[in-house]
Automatic annotation (TrEMBL):
Gene Ontology biological process terms from the UniProt entry: carbohydrate metabolic process; purine ribonucleoside salvage
Cofactor(s) the protein needs: Mg(2+)
Keyword terms of this UniProt record: Isomerase, Magnesium, Metal-binding, Phosphoprotein
Classification via InterPro entries: A-D-PHexomutase_a/b/a-I, A-D-PHexomutase_a/b/a-I/II/III, A-D-PHexomutase_a/b/a-II, A-D-PHexomutase_a/b/a-III, A-D-PHexomutase_C_sf, A-D-PHexomutase_CS, Alpha-D-phosphohexomutase_SF
Protein name: Phospho-sugar mutase
Length: 569
């Protein structure tokens, strides 16, 4: 408590705005728990940058925490690119204070003599990633908290390649940030160094999205889409992209069209949550649409619903859409001819079906830690290889390498291309997915997230990971655990042979159990939310398409048994 008080008292200096000082005084005298939550730590960069609740304190998103990060980043840029005329680009989403915080970030950069390109209004995260390279910038920043609740905001940093920062840069930038005090922040802007941008970059991004996502599918004039931006930024790009690609029947959910940081029509603006797409599903049933697409506030994730075998709209998960999108890209490349240097990508907690499918195509599937910054790093690290596409279970996908982050704009177009062509061929998006299960094995996944808020919650999550390491699960649904991959120690242990080997992936607090029957369970604390996540994957052979429903029911029952066994059901 002494350290927390010391931190809080440092915010009572004249450097801080009067209203900030008054709020800190109130916390010190009247709200000990609130004081702890706001000052017990500094916000850190996780898998998606820095993200947190807005408010006063070192553990909050505010003018000072973002200012300090920007000052540290400015210092780092000057060291790495000494003597160069530095340029950065900044975007922001629909969240409360995103526009004003983006302006603060721009002013700090400019006060450090750095040229800033600031979007004149809200834009998608994939457009920011694209803009870094389009404008030949040294770095980029987007103010967003992705799909988190309304009280959150965040700060994601991108490097010259358009991908988010990765080691060693992230650690070096954090060291720069930690080496300065709040009083070192330069808040006095050089307005001549701040340039507003919009239409030119928009046009380049939208054209590139169409070029990369349009494969000339047939039947577009007969294909009906219902689209919702869930009050977010994708309204600035996706309708225009679909229009230019030839989709004439796109119905936008009007109640969710207007960007709004309160997200008034949903409990959570997260397309991973079925409730988020309920209005779009209702509209789709009214007009007989073929597909529903919804995106999160910064437009990097997309959720899809398609007609199943009974003609009913069914929500798909991120693993399912990723499989079919990747297969489509592999088929397109196969038509051109494989050169032998192609690769696709996925993550350690996503479906193992990706690797199995790539194996059949004789194409490498690179596996990374969770987070698209790692997939972007692959593209940079292997310049002689050709990235076709890839994704992760959390509803993200990337088509080609013109954007270096998950991109719901181009992925939405790709999904529509697959579905429209399938319908024109007398099939469907869903039926094509069943064909994948028949060809590569029927894999079924389930994600369980437990929310543990605040300092106490962080301690509980840490203890759960300790327990799973020190008292490992011996079997899952009657199948013996064969290997344990511990990404924090970079050691994979074979429990049968006693052998172990080093995991050639950067360290992360992830633990994965694999059983004799191919079942997989991963435990991972979220890097951007107060959650611990459990990822389950089970699989079996699908003998024929006719056996799909029966086989799926068997896999569902298996997952239910596992959840009950682990007290997660």
């Amino acid at each position: 408590m002494e350290q927390i008080l010391e931190r809080a008292n440092s915010w009572l200096s004249d450097f801080f705005d009067p209203e900030v000082r008054n709020e800190v005084k109130t916390l010190i005298t009247q709200d000990e728990e609130g004081l702890k939550e706001r000052f017990y730590r500094d916000l850190e960069f996780g898998t998606g940058g820095m993200r947190g609740v807005m408010g006063v304190g070192t553990n909050r998103i505010n003018k000072y925490t973002l200012g300090k990060s920007t000052q540290g980043l400015s210092n780092y840029l000057k060291k790495v690119y000494a003597g160069e005329s530095l340029k950065v680009v900044i975007a922001y989403d629909c969240r409360h204070n995103s526009d004003t915080l983006a302006r603060v970030v721009a002013e700090v950069f400019s006060a450090n003599g750095i040229q800033v390109y600031l979007f004149s209004a809200l834009r998608t995260t994939p457009e920011l990633s694209f803009a870094v390279r389009y404008l030949n910038c040294h770095a980029g920043v987007v103010l967003t908290a992705s799909h988190n609740p309304p009280e959150y905001n965040g700060y994601k940093v991108y490097w010259t390649d358009g991908g988010q920062i990765v080691p060693p840069q992230d650690g070096e930038i954090i060291a720069e940030i930690n080496n300065i005090s709040f009083e070192d922040i330069l808040f006095n802007p050089n307005k001549n160094l701040i340039k507003l941008i919009d239409k030119e970059v928009d046009e380049a991004f939208i054209s590139a999205s169409v070029n990369n996502g349009n494969f000339g599918a047939e039947g577009k004039d007969q294909f009906k889409i219902v689209f919702t931006s869930l009050h977010g930024t994708s309204i600035t790009a996706i309708p225009e992209v679909l229009k230019r690609a030839g989709y004439a029947h796109v119905t936008i959910v009007e109640e969710q069209r207007e960007p709004d940081g309160n997200f008034p029509t949903v409990k959570s603006p997260n397309p991973e949550e079925p409730e988020a797409l309920s209005l779009a599903m209702k509209k789709a049933e009214e007009i007989g649409a073929d597909m529903v697409v919804g995106t999160d506030p910064d437009s990097d994730r997309l959720g899809i619903a398609v007609r199943n075998r009974e003609g009913k709209l069914q929500l798909l998960n991120g693993n399912q859409t990723m499989i079919l999108m990747t297969k489509f890209l592999l088929d397109q490349q196969k038509k051109k001819g494989f050169k032998g240097n192609e690769f696709v990508a996925s993550t350690i907690v996503s479906t193992p079906m990706m690797s199995r499918m790539a194996e059949v195509y004789r194409v490498e599937c690179k596996i990374s830690l969770t987070g698209f910054k790692w997939i972007a790093k692959m593209i940079k690290d292997f310049p002689d290889q050709h990235f076709l596409g890839g994704g992760e279970e959390s509803f993200g996908f990337m088509v080609g390498d013109f954007v270096r982050d998950k991109d719901a704009v181009t992925a939405t177009l790709l999904a529509c291309e697959i579905a429209a062509q399938a319908k024109a061929d007398g099939s469907s998006f869903f039926e094509e997915l069943v064909s994948c299960y028949e060809a590569y094995g029927f894999y079924k996944e389930k994600l369980i997230s437990l929310t543990k808020k605040g300092m106490k919650g962080a301690e509980e999550i840490a203890q759960m990971m300790v327990d799973f390491r020190e008292n490992p699960v011996k079997s899952i649904d009657g199948s013996e655990v064969v290997t344990i991959d511990d990404y924090s120690s970079s050691i994979s242990r074979n429990l049968k042979t006693g052998e172990s080997h080093t995991i050639d992936i950067p360290k992360s607090n992830v633990l994965i159990y694999k059983t004799a029957d191919g079942t997989q369970m991963a435990a991972r604390p979220s890097g951007t939310e107060p959650k611990i996540k459990f990822y389950f994957s089970v699989n079996t052979r699908l003998g024929s398409k006719a056996a799909f429903e029966k086989t799926e029911a068997e896999l569902d029952r298996k997952i239910e048994r596992i959840l009950k066994e682990l007290n997660l059901g």
